Records
---
Amino acid sequence: MRLFRHQASSTLIDMTVNLERVSKNEAKRLRAAADRVQIVERRLGWRRIEGGVVSSGRQSSGIFKDGKILPGTHLYRGCGGQFLSSDVHCDVIDEDVVFLGVFHRCWGHCITDCLKHLWFVLGGLPNEFSGMRMVYCTYDCQEELPDNLFEMLSFLGIELNSAMRIDQPTRFRSVIIPDECFYVPESEDTLFRYMTPEFGLLIERLIDAVGVDRSGRPHRRVFFSTTHFHFWDYGAEDFDVAFNNAGYEVVFPERLHFAEMVRLLNETSIFASLDGSCAHNSIFLRKESQLIIVRKSREIFWHQHDINLLRNLSVTYVDAFIYASILLYEPNAPKRGPFFVWINSKMADVLGCKPTLPVLNIIKFLCWGITLHFGHKYGEWRRNRARHISMR
């Protein structure tokens, strides 16, 4: 039985992870990922950047000074570009502002990376910054942020509609940047990930603000389904049926308001989900709850390991996927899928049902995946060819 207990060196948290239903190689990778997460004591403060430029966009989201990204101001390390071209036009506003962060429409980032600068709500803004306007940028200038992000931030006392959204690079007199409480250090070549106690307190503040009843024992068994919003999870509909037959409530989280979801998770003793953003909602479970992660690929979803430790969850990982790099739409970005999941013997053991072999679905998935993969390759070839011709 591959069961291990992970103890973060700077905390007393002792997290149990069951890897019995994961292959040996995958178990080794998951164990290594868990060992790279720590909760650390760090004095959080503020930086004032004179003439800082706030910018949005996949290649330039964050705060820039002299054309270079300032460490810790992008969505997460390595995301959003490192430089802002000197040819880019900047609007100029002669005003001091407080930076809230880079926001993303992906819910998993909303409840992790998008909160990393917001620890200041625990004690309020320092007097010298009170009255300053708050600004934020987005990973994609055109993206529409989810309503639940606005609702969640309102429970922290931040009305995002009242803050200034930056879609065009804008230089301010100065930008006040709160330190990160959830981060990967820029100075480290390793993939160590850190949280400060303030990040955990932020989550607790959200749970309390929603008004959950903590007096009773959690009793519900809940499975969050991805079938209504993630069509690249091929075969996911079979899991809705299987978990329902096993006595779980099958819930479609995109139909819930933020407060409804948090109250539901507060009453949940066993929570199950496919890996990825949907599973990240476990951040609102009560501490020491049980979590079942249905793995849909070999991809390591790093944020989940942060959450497992933060909430001290008892986690069971189950391999339930068919993987081949040739089936990926974009091999360098495996999180984009597509994914195929099925009720194999490992999953059937968890649910107490019989395994299935959906041959027809597997054939359809193989055809679909290969078509997407080579379609993407052909698109890349056409773009490169057009670029080569234009340079002649």
---
Amino acid sequence: MPSCSALAWKYSLVELMAAYPLMILGGALAMLALTKWSMSRSDEHHQNWMQSNYALATR
């Protein structure tokens, strides 16, 4: 049965320490990409809503 520290047996401490910043950077880049995608999707939705409901939006 594998223990919780299975990675410690497979990789050296140097390899684990080298991979940690890469994982942090990859996670940050993924969050930035998802945020940009979400904001562009939100802007598109808002523009479509404004075009179809202009009378409601300008009251």
---
Amino acid sequence: MSLLPNTPRKKRILRRWAALFLAFSVLAILAIVDSRLKATPEPGYCPGEPRWVVSANDSGYFLSHLKTTDAVAQFVKEWPQPVVRLHLDFHRITGIRPTPTRWRLWMGKRFLAAGSGDGIGFCVRPGVLLHAVHFIRARLFRADSDAGVFQYGNHFYAWRDGFVIISESERYVRRSLEDAPPALESSQNRAEIRVQRFVLPRASIGVQASNGIPVEGWIDGQLTGRRTTPLSGPEVWPEAPLLSLTISQWSDITKLYALAREILPGQRAKTCAEGLVSFFGAMDFHLPGPNWDRNVDHIAVALDDFDLSANIPVPELIMTLRSTTPARGPHPLEALLTNGSALPHEWNEAPGFILPAFGEKAALCLGRYGSDWLAASQEPLLRKIAGNLKNGPDVHADMVLYLNWNKMSRVVERVLGQILSLELLPPSKADEVSAYWSPMSGALQRLGELRLGASAEGDRLVFTGFLAKGTQPKEKD
């Protein structure tokens, strides 16, 4: 027995339910097809000999979690302009607003970007929507193709095994179609991107989208790592310095310097580093012979601040050579006092020397306290650390690097203020620099510290740490 009489109203209801069922069926089929089109264990394609590659298993998931981390949320709140500009550029190029949901819908989960001698491009594994757009362009509007390579505005794109490769360089796209993909490291963590460097020194780093921005990875390089006790981080100092490096012997510092020169971006940075070495060389600060630090278990060097009382910023450097036995006998760096102008001095009733290099602002001060041999570039600095060093938490690594974002930002702010007060920049340029740096400074001041610890494993340095540990929210007015 029918629940509804066989009337026009019944037929209309049945037609509506049939249309609704058909719509749901079509959507379910499209969702299944979309999911299968996007699903793949492969990372994507790029030229076979890239210089660098950035890849993500689930780019939308990573971005949605990254923007909620303490560091990124605070940085964007203080300095939103770069993110806004990036969003506008991406929207202009693709026509898609770059939100995590829209990205997943159009581009899928997989993401690979690379740079090579052929240019820069990216590769994604899209679903139904982008396939449909390409079908309409290729079939209905008869978009021209040159051996499978299409052009859209200033960009070229091509399809390979369900992936679409996009670049402003046609050669990049063609090489991505022809070459076997490079060997890439993968991560099962959806909230992570992996950055790989393929030119020497090779490196790989994973960046996680969680508070503090944890990182882990490796880089080609060697450290001797002869320590017999754990290293100490910047907690060894009375107050956090701008930059701190702790290592087991001085020769490893020179190895790190050589490694840094290889990876510094651009010739200007390399020239700047070489100039710094020449500066110290001009002061005749030549280290003693090999193994001068053989009785030292680890060395902590720090850039505490910059002295801006003169027109030229002068770095304030401090160093401790920590031994497992009391610091007795000649100072390990006493051989530097070769020109006879060193002045005897005492700190906390322990003997030492001051060698004026360029006056009181740049002098070699050597002292000792307990099991620590001390050195500083100014007498007040050595007075501050003598007897005030701490043990700090143990770090089981061969190298520990800390950078205080707050202090770095304030130093740059003071240097910039001095440059502007001396009118070293034209007024128009000064306004531009000030407008750019002011919000950036506010963002950096709250990012806490960069903390990295590295250990030697064969021909690699394996590291872990944080890019912005201890990010502080802005206090409410």
